[in-house]
Amino acid sequence: MTTLSRKCVPFTPFDRELSKSTIAIVTAGGVHLKDQEAFNIADELGDLTYREILPEVDSSQLIVTHHHYDHRDADEDINIVFPIDVLRDLESEGSIGGIAKKHIGYMGYTMQLKAMYEGTAREIANDIDKGSRADAVVLTGG
Amino acid sequence: MLITVSPEVSAQMRPPRALYPKGFKIGNSLGRPGMRELQKKVLRDALNLLTQNTRPGETITIEYPEYGEQYEPPHVKKLG
Fold first, then answer.
1. Is residue B75 part of a domain?
2. Is residue A117 included in any domain, yes or no?
3. Substitution target from B43, B53, B60 for chain A, most A beta carbons within 10 A
4. Cα separation of A135 and A128, whole Å?
5. Is B11 in a helix, a strand, or coil?
6. Residue of B nearest to A23 (CA)
7. In the beta sheet, which residues pair with residue A32?
8. Statement: the pTM of the whole predicted model exceeds 0.90
9. φ, ψ at B65 (rounded to 5°)
10. Which domain holds residue B55?
11. DSSP string, chain A
């Protein structure tokens, strides 16, 4: 795997048309399905795991487990941190080509920065790269 | 591309493209609950960064008056 300097900006030119592009969502906002294991907020070091979310997900089945931001608004409308229904709207109106086959939620708080940077972040990138068929990724925090 | 409500903090991670919807509070990356038209506008603006000639690492700030009350983003503490 290529190792990038932490000082470089990993900028990839984008030469596709948006209307033909497939988009994935990766959120650090602690989003996951109700029936998936919740993130471990009891561990003061943070939780390095992540959850895969499929494109046909019913957004009412998504919840937030994260104790480092006020997610009451997201509890009311998950789209403000995980805009899956908004993506569907943009697909319907033809602004984007499609919705990726895989999306990711993780808890963007950790005291284990090295493990997050060298482990979880790379695993998420590889998972999205190989499994989602996304042309671009929308990243959101809390 | 990143949608950030903490532009100083997120800039430290050097995202290739980033949108800061000015004055949105933490937890409201795409706006307030139920404001679907605003959410669509923010997401469209973020996606459009892909096809615009942005400078790598630059955060683009856009104002959305319909969001209403504005919030100050967290700032990075400077050492020394």
1. no
2. yes
3. B43
4. 10
5. helix
6. B47
7. A63
8. yes
9. -55, -30
10. 2-67
11. -----TTS-------S-GGG-EEEEEESB-EEETTSPPP-TT-TTB---EEEE-TT--GGGEEE--SSS--HHHHH-GGGTS-HHHHHHHHHTTSSSEE-S-EEEEB--BS-HHHIIIIIHHHHHHHHHHHT--SEEEEE--
Q: How far apart are CA A56 and CA A37, in angstroms?
A: 19
Provide the number of structural domains found in chain A: 1
What are the two backbone dihedrals, phi and then psi, of residue A7, each rounded to the nearest 5 degrees?
-95, -10
Shortest CA gap A40–chain B (Å): 19
Partner-chain contact B3 A138, CB within 8 Å: yes
Residues of B in contact with A63 (CB under 8 A): none
Stated as kind and residue range, the H or E segment containing B45 is helix B36-48
Model confidence pLDDT, tens digit, residues A29-81: 999 999 999 999 999 999 999 999 999 999 999 999 999 999 999 999 999 99
The total domain count for chain B is 1
Provide the residue range defining the domain that includes A68: 19-140
H or E element, residue B40: helix B36-48
The answer to whether A104 touches A95, Cβ cutoff 8 Å, is no
